[in-house]
Amino acid sequence: MSCSNLTMWVSSKTSLSDSTALSFRSSITPVQLPSNNSTTANPSRPSSVTPIHCGLRELRDRIVTVKNTQKITEAMKLVAAAKVRRAQEAVVNARPFSESLVEVLYNINEQLQTDDIDVPLTKVRPVKKVGLVVVTGDRGLCGGFNNAIIKKAEARIAELKGLGLDYTIISVGKKGNSYFIRRPYIPVDRFLDGTSLPTAKEAQAIADDVFSLFISEEVDKVELLYTKFVSLVKAEPVIHTLLPLSPKGEICDINGNCVDAAEDEFFRLTTKEGKLTVERDIMRTKTTEFSAILQFEQDPVQILDALLPLYLNSQILRSLQESLASELAARMTAMSNATDNANELKKSLSIVYNRERQAKITGEILEIVAGANALT
Amino acid sequence: MTLNLCVLTPNRIVWDSEVKEIILPTNSGQIGVLPNHAPIATAVDIGILRIRLNGQWLTMALMGGFAKIGSNEIIVLVNDAEKGSDIDPQEAQQTLEIAEANLKKAEGKRQTIEANLALRRARTRVEAINAV
């Protein structure tokens, strides 16, 4: 019974126009497996889209898949949005610290301007080897975020090679780690994992590493490559020199804009008359006065010694936070795009599906009418 | 006069309220601070900060940093600070043992520097619990 039905169906299909050629192709496959069909055809009679029409079923499956994917991307987008808020809170929490720090540092620098101070972290040595701290994300699915920062690192490496300098990498974040592990010709000093929310401990781990590299004179300059968070839709990979810290450089306004503490200041390693030099551009901003009479308990050098690691730490922490915020923002945008795409795909798939379904119904009606006509 | 203490770490504000007296671990030894102290700036070592609150002494492990004492206003900026009561004794003891082992294994200038720092941090945390 079902077999005769099938042949009828196929023949009626052939009589249809060329536009259904595709569906015809797929509907012919079940004919080769009649035993399979006879079992399934009868119980699923009420549902119009029987397993016979594979084209329709495949379409339906695809629609379901797209729907599920869309649900996932939508959820990821929402999660990223929630996390961006947390990341922003972390930045806000770090603000009182960095504000007081910059304020104190600024004032102490002011008082020490005249003295000739010598602090290990500020020692500018002739550069032979450069340490690069590359901050990447832990997970993918965030657009070009990880790619952009890795490309930046590659560009910097090429630049350093061009200058004839040695380099070593400190990789932070799983994505960067796997990238550098796959490329054994790039010297990596240490792999560090990022966590969901950067903490002072993590920054400390990086700072310790950087600190010992610099103090033991293994490297003469440390650069931090991270993604600067500009806005929810814009983030750019930047290079920021961590060490040597310039004892005169840490200046910024204290009116809440301290997250950008040293952003006004850029260091560039360039060649000047065949020699390597570090160029500094500093933009001075106003700072309010604070208590003028301040005694130093210890040597000013010791106090700076205590302050500069703190400064280093807060710089690293801030860059980690910015990197995380950028990653989340990138993921949010990517997932929002994916959701939009899924919506579009779902729409066009449903149109195709409905067309095919209608063609099938039309075919069935033709069949019935033809049968009735033949009887009379 | 009241004395206000503010302990800040990069993550959060650990302490921001009134105290009676504190003992601060500076690089040049411990100094006690009472109300109306002269304004000074000092480096803070890795060590224990003792805080007196109504006759009760609290401890806090400080991981090195800086302190500024102004007109009855103390600002302590440190990499990390933990209240003695918040530290898990077992975990701290374990960390100390690991740090000690690491120092023995350390080779070269760089590893020794790192291991020494880690050991001092671990030791301070243990001391902060036991000092109460």
Automatic annotation (TrEMBL), chain A:
Keywords: ATP synthesis, CF(1), Chloroplast, Disulfide bond, Hydrogen ion transport, Ion transport, Membrane, Plastid, Thylakoid, Transit peptide, Transport. GO terms for molecular function: enzyme regulator activity; proton-transporting ATP synthase activity, rotational mechanism. It is found in: Plastid, Chloroplast thylakoid membrane. CDD domains: F1-ATPase_gamma. It is a peripheral membrane protein. GO terms for cellular component: chloroplast thylakoid membrane; proton-transporting ATP synthase complex. It comes from the Eukaryota. InterPro entries: ATP_synth_F1_ATPase_gsu, ATP_synth_F1_gsu, ATP_synth_F1_gsu_CS. NCBIfam families: ATPsyn_F1gamma (TIGR01146), PRK05621.1-2 (NF004145). Produces ATP from ADP in the presence of a proton gradient across the membrane. The gamma chain is believed to be important in regulating ATPase activity and the flow of protons through the CF(0) complex. F-type ATPases have 2 components, CF(1) - the catalytic core - and CF(0) - the membrane proton channel. CF(1) has five subunits: alpha(3), beta(3), gamma(1), delta(1), epsilon(1). CF(0) has four main subunits: a, b, b' and c. Belongs to the ATPase gamma chain family. This is F-ATPase gamma subunit.
